[in-house]
Sequence to fold (333 residues):
Amino acid sequence: MENLPVEVIGNVLSHLGAARDVVIASATCWKWREARRKHLHALTFSSDDWPVYRDITTRRLEIIITQTIFQTRGLQRLSIRMDDAHELSAAPVIAWIMYTRETLRYLSYNVHTMPSVNILEKCGRQRLEVLDLDLNSITGIEPSYQRFTSLKSLSLRHVSISALDLCLLLAACPKIESLALDALEIVTSDSQSMMELSSPMLKSIYARALGVDKIILEADNLESLHLNALNPDLFELIGKGTLIHLKIDDVSVTHLDIGEITDHLEVIDVSNFTIIWPKFYHMISRSSKLRRLRLWGMVFDDEDEIMDSEIVAICFPQLRHLSLSYDLRDGVL
Fold:
């Protein structure tokens, strides 16, 4: 092992990931410590990796994270995920982000922080490619200043943000391909809450538990749409018919519009979905490339609405997998 170049040792330590394992391994000799300082690319602090994090004081945890991060140069991946046992102070969190932001490409932050830190203001906007935020607050997006020119994946969970700032944030990410919105606290300016999002490069979106009445998504290159635990009056997708995967789970929507062109749809997975069936069937009936169809827990008003096998064979000639489970209003089929 002594003959290994420090760059190789740095890659080995980076694959360990967990900060505790990195520190223990690098204590082997001076060469490994040197590799940690100069060639470590990834660090993860997680209460799942080391339960002791839950038992130490918050102040001690902040010191451990600070010392470990500040003994590195050129971190590209940083993940800090703690359970509810800790509420970190804003000052050290800001210091960690400022110290690493010039080289950071991946950031995952899931810790209660007091006062709340607007991570987006501190992130390096030129290099960051993946951003995963939980338990955070985002305010005052300025697209002319906060341009995330390399960001390809954005995940927001339990984040407080206004509908306008979310729209501006997406506009500030010209290369974004993947977007996950989970249990957001969305602030709107009117009584009938509406969220409008637009992204020409977006390929995949996951939306769960968003407390808004109307969702309008404009995405010309969207390939994957996953809706979960939603109850909007309106969901409208404006695009160019590029959708390939459609998954809907535990959703009740008055009006759903995924566009007139559904020729490229290959997978439809629907469960516990409340909608007027003829409208939904009309949308998917032209999906001649469909290979997988799952309709589970669908509720019909009468037997005339039910799609039989002959209709399936005619509409979807390339279908290879079919799962159907229907309920009638007056009984189970």
The two ends are 66 Å apart (CA to CA).
